[in-house]
Amino acid sequence: MFEQIRKRGDNFSYLIGDEGSGLAAVVDPSGNQRTIIRHLKKKGLKLVYILLTHSHPDHTFGTDYLTKKTGAKVVAHESSRVRIDLAAKDGQRIQLGGLTIEIMHTPGHTPDGICVIVDGKIMTGDTLFVQECGRTDLSGGDSAEMYDSLNRIKALPEDMEVWPGHDYGPKPSSTIGEEVRENYTLEDMILEEFIEFMKEP
Q1: Cα separation of 163 and 200, whole Å?
Q2: Other beta carbons within 10 Å of 194
Q3: pLDDT tens for each residue of 153-178
Q4: The pTM is what?
Q5: Would you give the distance in Å from CA 188 to the centre of its chain?
Q6: Which residue ranges form the domains of the chain, and what is each CATH number?
Q7: pLDDT digits (tens, 9 = 90+) for 22-72
Q8: How far apart are CA 70 and CA 47, in angstroms?
Q9: Quick check: 23 and 59 in contact, CB under 8 A?
Q10: Terminal Cα-to-Cα distance of the chain (whole angstroms)
Q11: CA distance 193 to 76
């Protein structure tokens, strides 16, 4: 089971459920904590993991509420400054009942940025949006790291579904193939060209 949850702003949260075991994980509470609790109750799922794609408050807001209500463990990259129960590394796999969740470290927007891969889907946080990519001009941002992260994502299977952290594009989700063809930030560039490109307003 997979569900995209959106609050009144443009942030997305994602609910991942393994119906066989009744276990669930949330990617980025993003202020949707009460809606998430309602969805869990409706579907009869127990929240065991809260995965944070990075430490910006618009993605982490609601984490404390969910941990107190459910006892779920907080998962974030080992370099993150948020309170972590499970410090994740690049390539780490986490079992959620019969589902396997894979962590891809994708710094660039922030040093602790990760993407979450499960069941043919990638939740890209603020690394990759539909037809756009994340900013690198905020604290901790790094265009060279973003370049490497985007190239890793580009190499994933074309039919993998892309589910971003914000509703910034013409539609709420995409695929790797669509993004490679249509996202101008994924056009072939050498590193120096990409760094100059990211300086543009």
Answers
A1: 25
A2: 22
A3: 999 999 999 999 999 999 999 999 99
A4: 0.96
A5: 24
A6: 2-199 (3.60.15.10)
A7: 999 999 999 999 999 999 999 999 999 999 999 999 999 999 999 999 999
A8: 6
A9: no
A10: 39
A11: 31
With vertex at residue 109, the alpha carbon angle to CA 184 and CA 6, rounded to the nearest 5 degrees, is 80
User: Residue 177: what are its φ and ψ, rounded to 5°?
Assistant: -60, -45
8 A C-beta contact, residue 26 and residue 49: yes
The two three-digit tokens of residue 152, written as one number: 């890793």
Amino acid (one-letter) located at 151: N
